[in-house]
Amino acid sequence: MRMTRFRIVAVVTAVALLFAAGEAAAYRMIQNASPGRTSTGVRVQCSDPGGFVHWNRSQVEMRLNVANQGAKPGVPLAIQHALAAWTGVTPAGYTLTYGGTTSSGFTTDGVSTVLWSTGNGCAGSCLAITALVLGPGQVIQEADVSFNDAYTWNTNGSDYDVEAIAAHELGHCMGIHHTELTKPRNRPTMYTAYFGPDGRTLESDDRDALNCAYSRYLLAAIIADDDGSATPGEPGTGVALHSRVRDGHATLRYALHRPGDVRLDVFDIAGRRVTTLVSGTRGTGEYEVAWGGETRMGMVRHGVYFARLETPEGHDVAMLLLGP
Amino acid sequence: MLYKRRVFPCVLSLAAIVSLAAPASATSLVRRGIESLSRDNETIVQASVVDIHSYWNPSHTFIFTDVHVRASKKFKGDAADDLSFTVMGGTVGQTTTLIVGGPDLAPGSEYVLFLSRTNLPGTPARLTVRDLCQGVFAVRHGRAVSQAAGEPLLPDAQGSAEAPGGADGLPLETLAQQIRDAK
User: Fold this and answer.
1) Are the CB atoms for B114 and B44 separated by under 8 Å?
2) Distances (CA, A) of A306 to A207, A312, B72, B103, B165
3) What was the pLDDT predicted at A218?
4) Residue B157: is its pLDDT beyond 90?
5) Which of A15-19, B31-35, B149-153 has the highest average model confidence (pLDDT)?
């Protein structure tokens, strides 16, 4: 695969930015310890040269085992809300979906499962535990979450809150370890201890962690793609966003095979939306959109940005490097 | 992995709760001190890891790792000098099962281990490190350093937020005395 000079510069710049951001961040990622010892997760920064556990696809499906307290009313919805919290992180393009119920357990069977049990090594003060099944290269193949069925679980906001703890464990499922933040308010969901239903919502530290995973692994695939298009592990979704940057201006190109609502947003590397380039119904055909860094607040600074396209046929992400 | 939060009411209220609850979930504290670790685990040894063996269980549904250790000191229980216990996770071939927050045990290294029997996936009452990373102290230069050191634990009833001994660990003699005091 040919790598143009632009892409080499883009990769170096993006990596430098990511590493600079990673050093100051409090979030930590899960690194698989070296073989030859028991396997636990080592907490590392985003920039750690040893990398960390990650998915190599953007679609992650979780199923619910309705045995024990998994059968409680409201549990499926609570799990779906927790999945939605991580799906909503941008520019990371992960989609965590609810796959319905399953009879699978805390086992390696290719089915990522949330379940309630007292027999999965989570006892005493442990409320829930996550097991990640990894393939070569620290790629996550399956993630199972076992809630401690010895506790009484609730979905009405009282302790112990299913949605809050599901959000936390799903963070582990996405390769995120406990944060090092210990502040008393606005705690990240990846705080090490349960702090009530406030844990349902993600904080910037949580979002930065997921964006880190996305940038380091899925975005790498995007950058390495020869024509700059983004296909982060979802071939065949029928939508692709192509980007080209020349003379400090970006051109974004996409095609629609059927009419529908389209949204094209640009985000900075911290995940903040800086502008919306397209929002509305578009007909079948090919489209090109130019962007030179303009926003309602003025011109953005030079640097790395991400464009995210959402259509009825799927979504895609492309990286933009705005320079002088 | 997620632990319960600290209960914030005063120590007296907490003590009342503690006195009424079962030992394994006696408090809602995150941090586990030597006293509670000693009380809630049936076997406590200082031991070197001789070898580890990871394997699929018979139904090929979970990877376990048997840890074979040689005990040099026994603080609690009547374990044999050569002792084996099981932890969840491990690597077999190209597949790894990783337990977030689990114990990290390397052959050739020495640890103080807090062990008890509990249910593991598909296998009841296995001797294991029930308290995961809080149940393992690495022995280095005469000191024992908790594998939970560095984890942002919440304070316990005594106001301690650090794993016992913190990053520097405890002198082994101090740890041994605390275990004896707790029994």
Assistant:
1) yes
2) 15, 20, 57, 39, 45
3) 78
4) no
5) B31-35
Q: Amino acid identity, residue B24? A: A
Q: How many domains does chain B have?
A: 1
Paired with A96 in beta bridges are A60
Find the Cα–Cα–Cα–Cα dihedral A98, A104, A106, A108, rounded to 10°.
-100
Q: Which of A128, A131, A136 sits opposite B94 (nearest CB)?
A: A136
Phi, then psi, of A211 in degrees rounded to 5: -65, -35
Chain B neighbors of A198, CB-CB under 8 A = none
Rounded to the nearest 5 degrees, what angle is found at the Cα of A306, between the Cα atoms of A301 and A311? 140
* Size of the A and B interface in Cβ pairs below 8 Å: 180
Q: Answer whether residue A219 is part of any domain.
A: no
Domain boundary, last residue among A183, A213, A243: A213
**Cβ contacts of B161 within 8 Å, gap of 6 or more:** B31, B152, B153, B154, B155
Domain assignment of residue A218, yes or no: no
Give a yes or no: residue B1 inside a domain: no
Strands A113-117 and A59-65: parallel
Residue of B nearest to A145 (CA): B1
User: B151 is in which domain, residue-wise?
Assistant: 11-182
Which of A187, A213, A239 marks a domain boundary?
A: A213
Domain that holds residue A154: 5-213
Q: A165 and B2: CB-CB below 8 Å?
A: yes
User: Is there a contact between A228 and A242 (Cβ–Cβ < 8 Å)?
Assistant: yes
Interchain proximity B2–A169, CB inside 8 Å: yes
User: Which residues in chain A show pLDDT less than 50?
Assistant: 1-13, 15-23, 223-236
Please list, in sequence order, all residues whose beta carbon lies within 8 angstroms of the beta carbon of residue A184, skipping any fewer than 6 positions away. Answer: none
What is the structure's pLDDT at A273? 84
Please state, in angstroms and rounded to a whole number, the distance separating the CA atoms of residues B50 and B71. Answer: 10
At residue A206's C-alpha, the angle toward residues A169 and A298, to 5°, is 155
Taking the Cβ of residue B91 and every Cβ of chain A, the question of whether any pair is shorter than 8 Å is answered with: yes
Residue window 9-68, chain B: list those with CB within 8 Å of chain A.
24-25, 27-30, 32, 40, 52, 54, 60-63, 65, 67
Which CATH number fits the domain that encloses residue A257?
2.60.40.4070
B151 — pLDDT class (breaks 50, 70, 90): low
- Asked if the structure places residue A220 within a domain, the reply is no
Q: B30–A192: do the CB atoms touch at under 8 Å? A: yes
Render pLDDT for B72-119 as a digit per residue (tens, 0 to 9): 999 999 999 999 999 999 999 999 999 988 888 999 999 999 999 988
The percentage of residues in chain B with a pLDDT greater than 90, rounded to a whole number, is 55
Instruction: Give the pLDDT of residue B8.
Output: 36
pLDDT at residue B156 in the model = 64
In whole angstroms, how far apart are CA B113 and each of A42, B38, B39, B91?
Answer: 19, 10, 13, 22
